[in-house]
UniProtKB/TrEMBL annotation:
Pfam families: ABC_tran
Organism: Alkalicoccobacillus porphyridii
Domain of life: Bacteria
Cross-referenced PANTHER family: ABC TRANSPORTER ATP-BINDING PROTEIN ALBC-RELATED
Keyword Transport set for record: yes
Organism taxonomic ancestry: Bacteria, Bacillati, Bacillota, Bacilli, Bacillales
Entry keywords, A to Z: ATP-binding, Nucleotide-binding, Transport
Protein name: ABC transporter ATP-binding protein
Amino acid sequence: MRYSQGRRVTRMQKIEIKNLSKSYGSKKVIEDLTLTLEGNRIYGLIGENGTGKSTLLRLISGLARPTKGTIEVNGKKNAEERRSQIAYLSDQEAFDGFSTIAYQVDFHQKMVTGFQVDRVYDMLNTIRLSVDQKIKNLSKGHRNLFNLILTLANPAPILVLDEPLSGIDTNKKEDLVQLLSTFTLDEERLIIFATHEYDEIEFLIDGLIIIKDSRLVYFTEDLEKMRLEHGKTIQQIFKEVNQ
């Protein structure tokens, strides 16, 4: 699932979250979260399963309504307006398995203003995927990688990615990490990247967000500085805040 009719980026990006809470009945999924993300950076979002990572991404993307609090994306508070700023990659697959890669590329080119179709074909060549292949014949890893490529080709200034590494083999993960790094540098994007595979993002992300028991328990926008000053890996930081 992807959203945005966004235009090419010409400025620094900003997400402001204030006193955000989300409940489903009596179950609190996000509780009183305040956070500001800004700049052309990649932020890693980590936490155990069920801690609220996916819910937070859906709230930011305007796909779920908060119980309390506000979210502002590049100055836009309304959910529909926020969606115009964001390309969202769900952790759920939404392909018609009988369609081909070429059909899906053509469909997205028609649906998304400014869709970067040339980049899609460049990336498909890099990972050696034929446009004539049917989606149903791809491995889970290749389907997920293709889904990510379509999201990266969306010109929205902010990318919200929910578990994009899921099911992708080690070699392809290296290609993916390079793609993400190149995109945020070349196009001045802000990327939020939810994952449980900490080792894979150690030297990809600029900032780190950790959620525990529905609450924000750790945040730095300069992970490299923290690493140099304290000599800790993401995994070590995660273990400390979860003790």
